From TrEMBL:
The keyword Repeat does not apply. GO terms for molecular function: DNA-binding transcription factor activity; sequence-specific DNA binding. Residues 229-330 form the HTH araC/xylS-type domain. This is Helix-turn-helix protein. InterPro entries: AraC-bd_2, AraC_XylS_family_regulators, Homeodomain-like_sf, HTH_AraC, HTH_AraC-typ_CS. Pfam families: AraC_binding_2 (PF14525), HTH_18 (PF12833).
């Protein structure tokens, strides 16, 4: 049984899917739909099969938590980057003539080309699978570097997620997975969803070894003042637009890292902090002229891109020395 229902109030790119079946063929069809063309087999003549999944699609990223009650062999033709992280049991991977083993602290990583064979030892088996569309990861890398790249990105076949920045990335993935059960999740807000999407992409690129990592972690030159002015003008022209750092870097025609360094040097804060400051100023202007009998603080906050009312109120008080409700009441 598959339940694929976009949340009514969610952005178009955010879908939640739930699946449960005792039919390997139905399991295969779900893999084909949300991941890749795949073949599914039960080894050793086993006839018992039970699979369930909870999946969330965040634009080009799909995160699925699979639970399997029997050993399963799957072979897939990959056209995206893919990370498999077992929570229980082990996964044996065969790709490009080599075999790898993944467990609760070691993820299996696949590139976007070739055929992969995956044997889930068990039962039971529980794992997180993360699919990242090739174009999305490579575009994120290009934006961070400020230049085109020659893909695919050469991620390693296994990744230790037990400590350091890779553990942080693993926690981000778990955060996204945990939102599956919360219909009121902040991920339903486009601004938050977009920021998390970029964090997952850039986090993987900054924590996994690959041939671009040294360049990514080398301090970048500051964007020139004219480039920073372009970003500032875009922010002031339309602060309600759900800008990401990559969006602003594209406007400025510099890399993400150069934009960040340029803002630090020429503006004195990070690009997203400056965007928040401008939004707070616009929200204050709106509250000052609003009719408090007809307009709410929440409505003004959402209009200017603040998804979480409590955080808006806290940031507002820190900037202006009073709660937004006081500003609204004073407007009459």
């Amino acid at each position: 049984m598959t339940d694929a229902r976009p949340r009514p109030s969610s952005p178009a790119t955010l879908d939640v899917v739930r699946f449960s079946s005792q039919d390997p063929e139905e399991f295969r069809s779900v893999l084909n739909r949300f991941f890749y063309p795949a073949a599914v087999e039960l080894p050793d003549g086993s006839k018992r099969f039970q699979a369930s999944a909870e999946m969330i699609q965040l634009g080009p990223i799909t995160v699925a938590q699979f639970r399997l009650a029997a050993p399963v062999v799957a072979a897939a033709e990959l056209d995206a980057y893919h990370v498999t992280l077992p929570a229980r049991g082990r996964v044996r991977i065969r790709q490009a003539g080599r075999e790898y083993l993944a467990g609760p602290s070691t993820a299996a990583v696949f590139g976007p080309t070739g055929r992969a064979f995956v044997l889930r030892d068990g039962p039971p088996m529980e794992e997180l699978d993360i699919k990242i569309e090739r174009s999305a990861l490579e575009a994120e890398l290009s934006a961070l570097l400020g230049r085109s790249i020659e893909g695919p990105v050469d991620l390693p076949p296994t990744l230790d997620l037990s400590d350091g920045p890779r553990l942080t990335w693993r926690r981000l993935v778990h955060l996204l997975r945990d939102e599956l059960v919360h219909p009121g999740s902040l991920l339903l807000q486009p601004l938050i969803a977009e920021q998390l999407r970029h964090s997952l992409l850039s986090g993987l690129l900054l924590s996994a070894p690959h041939r671009y990592l040294a360049e990514l972690t080398t301090p970048a030159p500051a964007g020139p003042p004219r480039a920073i002015r372009r970003a500032l003008e875009a922010i002031h022209e339309d602060p309600r637009r759900p800008f990401s750092v990559a969006d602003l870097a594209a406007v400025a025609q510099v890399s993400v890292r150069s934009l960040q360094e340029g803002f630090r040097r020429h503006v004195g804060c990070a690009p997203m902090a400056y965007l928040q400051r401008v939004r707070l100023d616009r929200a204050r202007d709106a509250l000052r002229v609003a009719d408090h009998s007809r307009v709410t603080v929440a409505a003004v906050a959402h209009r200017w891109g603040f998804a979480h009312l409590g955080r808006f109120a806290s940031a507002y008080r820190a900037r202006f020395g009073e709660p937004p409700s006081v500003t609204l009441r004073a407007a009459g």
